[in-house]
Amino acid sequence: MSKPFFIEKTESALPLLIERAMCEKESLSISGDSWFFSTTSAWRVVSKEGLCFGWESTDVEIEVGSLEGVSIVAVKAIGMGNLDIQFELGNGKYIECFTAQHYEPWELKLPDNTIMVADGDAV
After folding, report:
1. Nearest CA among 69, 28, 31, 25 for reference residue 45
2. Range 99-122 burial, b when 16+ CB lie within 10 A, else e
3. Mean pLDDT in residue range 16-29
4. Residue 121 scores a pLDDT above 60
5. Do residues 120 and 101 touch, judged by C-beta distance below 8 A?
6. 51: exposed, middle or buried (C-beta count within 10 Å: 0-12, 13-18, 19+)?
7. How many CB atoms lie within 10 A of CB 6?
8. What is the mean pLDDT of the segment spanning 41-66?
9. CA dist., res. 61 & res. 107, Å (int)
10. What is the pLDDT of residue 123?
11. What is the pTM of this model?
12. Closest residue by Cα to residue 108 from 97, 116, 100, 120
């Protein structure tokens, strides 16, 4: 089975340094020089030990700041629908985003100005 286009395209841009990370209500935005990722869907940050924090966590706005200065070093599709995305971070943690809603659950702009938007209806 071949990789989804958004995975291959993102892999070609790695590593991506997270310079800014913010959370407002359930949404997460991470970005760096000429790239960004934003989601209004369910997301979490995990490690091999388990859940670090996520969209429903207490004080998530403070926790999100720990992503700044860390690079995305790998990416893969996870889940049944092939639109759930996992970013592997250089610190051994992972950002996972789930297509829990049908309308544009996440958006990714790469440094080459490619913009990709998940379509939960296109599963």
Report:
1. 28
2. beeeebbbebbbeeeeebebebee
3. 93
4. no
5. yes
6. exposed
7. 20
8. 93
9. 20
10. 42
11. 0.90
12. 116
User: With the CA atoms of 50, 55, 61 and 62 taken in that order, what torsion angle do they form, in degrees rounded to the nearest 10?
Assistant: -10
pLDDT at position 1 is 57
pLDDT at 114 over 60: yes
HSE value, Cβ hemisphere, 13 Å, CA-based, for 18:
24
Please give the full DSSP string across 47-60, using - where no structure is assigned.
ETTEEEEETTSTTH
DSSP-assigned letter for residue 101: S
Q: How many CB atoms lie within 10 A of CB 20?
A: 13
Summarised one tens digit per residue, pLDDT across range 74-104 is: 999 987 667 889 999 999 999 999 887 667 7
Q: What would the two tokens of residue 94 be?
A: 């992972």
